[in-house]
Design goal:
mainly alpha; 12 helices
């Protein structure tokens, strides 16, 4: 199966879930410190995916061997836990629009990693597309400080977001063979449950140092959204689709995230979109598009 209404409907839900994650993260970060938010998100996600894994194991007899456990753990911790930690810390230092732009440079990093594994070839056209995308990044950092009402964003935040996207690119390229042996629920259960175990001491330590009773229902709801929709549901859809579609083809849907996330940021958070941001973003994604289309 390479297409079909159900597949594309689920991918649309995934894109909306991830786009809303930027806004939910900003809302949660108003009251949660980044490390506390990351650790509690991991705990929630691990608890939410466990029933799905137990249900699948009982229904289909899903099995894994101890020999496979290290690779499943490494894949999950690198592509999910690390990705989400870098995302939260980056989002705390940049705007929704910036985060959406830098997170969605993933198609270029996917190409570079796939090339390193001998799965794809980097041509002159693809190099040209990468140069255009990098030129757009340079343009953004040059023009936006001069624009009026520029959003609050920092280079450190943008780089953290990009690093999180790179971790997710590793998840995409190196996770493809795993989907041939295990279901999306099994792979993500390893990622989230191991992440929850790893982050549990951090959550306890951070919670003891923070007035948890002061956190509002709205912030907890935003955290739940991040754990349920953008973490568990969207990742399950992504890994399920990865077993039915090439990684480079799935990554093309990331083009929809920046405008949708930016629109949500404007509507929900009152963020501003400057002319410098709009022009630079257009150049960046033209470069990403050229990179993917080049032969």
């Amino acid at each position: 199966m390479t297409g079909g209404p159900l597949l594309y409907a689920l991918i649309a839900l995934m894109i909306f879930g991830w786009s809303g994650n930027y806004v939910a993260g900003k809302i949660a970060l108003r009251e949660f410190p980044p490390l506390l938010l990351t650790s509690w998100r991991a705990l929630f996600a691990g608890a939410l995916i466990l029933p799905a894994y137990l249900w699948e194991r009982r229904r289909n007899g899903a099995r894994w061997t101890w020999r496979e456990a290290p690779s499943l753990l490494a894949l999950g911790l690198l592509g999910v836990t690390l990705n989400q930690m870098l995302f939260v810390f980056g989002l705390s230092r940049t705007s929704v629009a910036h985060a959406a732009i830098f997170a969605n440079l993933t198609p270029i990093t996917v190409l570079l990693l796939a090339s390193a594994r001998g799965l794809e070839r980097i041509t002159a056209g693809k190099l040209g597309g990468m140069a255009v995308a990098l030129g757009g990044v340079a343009l953004l950092k040059t023009l936006e400080p001069r624009a009026r009402n520029a959003p609050q964003a920092s280079l450190a935040g943008d780089l953290l977001i990009f690093a999180g996207g790179f971790a997710f690119a590793l998840f995409t390229v190196y996770g493809k063979p795993v989907t041939k042996r295990h279901s999306a629920i099994t792979v993500n259960a390893f990622a989230y449950i191991s992440g929850a175990i790893l982050m549990a001491p951090v959550a306890a330590w951070q919670s003891a140092r923070f007035p948890m009773a002061s956190i509002s229902l709205g912030a907890w709801t935003a955290l739940l959204y991040m754990a349920l929709f953008s973490s568990v549901i969207s990742y399950l859809i992504y890994y399920w689709a990865l077993g039915r579609m090439a990684p480079s083809r799935i990554s093309k849907f990331s083009y929809f995230q920046p405008p949708l996330a930016t629109a949500l940021g404007v509507l929900a958070l009152g963020e501003r979109v400057t002319w410098a941001l709009a022009v630079s973003a257009a150049v960046i994604f033209a470069g990403v598009f050229l990179t993917e289309r080049a032969r």
